[in-house]
């Protein structure tokens, strides 16, 4: 049920009760009116209009702008006819013909359109009351301010209620989608994922073409696990028929130069292509925004680190990518289970002109104002920690292609 529906029902009841109240006031003092027939004619219209328009104040759809305009006109007409029906009563500070029924007309504006519509309607009613009185008496100003404040307050409450209703509806949709995802994940885990895992294991045992088939099944299993767990899905990978290795198309690291380097992008989308059967990606559940140029360079540095894993640790080595979104920086750690780097090997490689770590990794991070820390223990693998400040700006061309 709509959270504002009770307000419409309350408004309908208010209009009927205040209409009867206004008629009762006239009946109790009809002998004091200068021209009671004017009041009788107005109350006949008010009685018929209030009862006939009850369906109009059942919901926001039926309470149209045209109805609101006519309803407010009925209230204003009653206010302005009051001096004609009883000039002495007005001079003594008595109520207008519609009395507090007028507030119901203003409240209809508030429930329909919020506090702005309420302010518009209550201002018009205030002007009509001042014209009817002739002078801004204390009681008139008091009543005008009361209606104005009350209608605006109710209009604001209605807007908050509608926003809350939309939020609740969205939360229910997310809950339903989450339940459906969990149900599908259970079904997939019990069937498809187990079959893919079995194909991967059997292919590795049989060897030959079956080994390649098993490797592809392993990649699809990793992608499917990422999908059912709600993460980002790695892009498809293309394998060469010749040779033992596979050529991975890293489209995320080869962005167009026309992209604004300062525009924020989600780093997770650039790192997702690197995930696979032997590369695990652990990422936050929320987006990790970085300037586009800095994100591409960081993703390229991760790719260079994975290239080193394949080249030096072997095609069977496993690697793990961990993304951490800290308040002032983004930290990406790449770790492998290879044999590690012998002491002095990096300095030797740099002396031989092999600048993979120096340029492809540390050079990129230095240009971003960040840092790259490499630690390795022989026999225990290698770990590369890439730290990039969130205010990094990268404006030069594409990342180096390897």
Structure description:
Pfam families: DUF5931, HATPase_c, HisKA_3. The chain is an alpha+beta fold and 402 residues long. The chain has two domains: 163 residues, no CATH class; 137 residues, Histidine kinase-like ATPase, C-terminal domain (Heat Shock Protein 90). It contains 13 helices and seven strands. A five-stranded mixed sheet has the order 2-4-5-7-6. Helix 3 runs parallel beside helix 6, helix 5 runs parallel beside helix 7 and helix 8 packs antiparallel against helix 9. The longest helix is centred in the middle third of the chain and has 53 residues. The protein is elongated, with a radius of gyration of 37 Å. It starts with a helix and ends in a 13-residue tail after the last strand.
């Amino acid at each position: 049920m709509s959270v504002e529906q009770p307000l419409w029902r309350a408004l309908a009841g208010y209009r009927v009760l205040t209409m009867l109240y206004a008629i009762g006031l006239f009946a109790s003092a009809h002998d004091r009116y200068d021209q009671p027939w004017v009041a009788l004619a107005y109350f006949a219209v008010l009685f018929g209009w209030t009862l006939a328009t009850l369906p109009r104040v059942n919901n926001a759809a039926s309470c149209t702008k045209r109805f609101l305009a006519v309803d407010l006109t009925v209230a204003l007409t009653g206010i302005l006819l009051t001096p004609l029906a009883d000039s002495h009563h007005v001079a003594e500070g008595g109520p207008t013909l519609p009395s507090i029924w007028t507030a119901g007309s203003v409240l209809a504006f508030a429930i329909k359109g919020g506090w702005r519509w309420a302010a518009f309607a209550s201002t018009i009613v205030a002007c009509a009351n001042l014209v009817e009185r002739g002078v801004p008496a204390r009681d008139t100003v008091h009543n005008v301010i009361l209606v104005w404040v009350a209608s605006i307050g109710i209009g604001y409450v209605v807007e908050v209620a509608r926003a809350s209703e939309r939020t609740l509806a969205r939360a229910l949709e997310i809950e339903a989608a989450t339940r459906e995802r969990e149900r599908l994940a259970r079904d997939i885990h019990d069937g498809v994922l187990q079959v893919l895992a079995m194909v991967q294991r059997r292919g590795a045992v049989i060897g030959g073409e079956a080994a390649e088939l098993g490797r592809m099944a392993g990649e699809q299993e990793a992608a499917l696990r990422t999908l059912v767990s709600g993460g980002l899905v790695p892009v498809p990978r293309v394998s060469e028929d010749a040779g033992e290795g596979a050529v991975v198309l890293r489209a995320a690291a080869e962005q167009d130069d026309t992209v604004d380097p300062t525009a924020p992008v989600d780093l997770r989308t650039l790192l997702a292509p690197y995930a696979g059967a032997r590369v695990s990606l652990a990422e936050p559940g929320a987006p990790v925004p970085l300037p586009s140029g800095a994100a591409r360079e960081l993703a390229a540095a991760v790719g260079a680190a994975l290239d080193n894993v394949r080249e030096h640790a072997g095609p069977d080595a496993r690697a793990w990518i961990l993304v951490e979104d800290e308040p002032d920086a983004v930290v990406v750690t790449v770790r492998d289970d290879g044999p590690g780097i012998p002491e002095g090997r990096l300095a030797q490689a740099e002396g031989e002109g092999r600048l993979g770590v120096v340029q492809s990794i540390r050079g990129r991070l230095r240009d971003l104002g960040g840092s790259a820390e490499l630690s390795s223990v022989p026999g225990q693998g290698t770990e590369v920690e890439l730290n990039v400040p969130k205010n990094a700006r990268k404006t030069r061309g594409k990342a180096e292609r390897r």
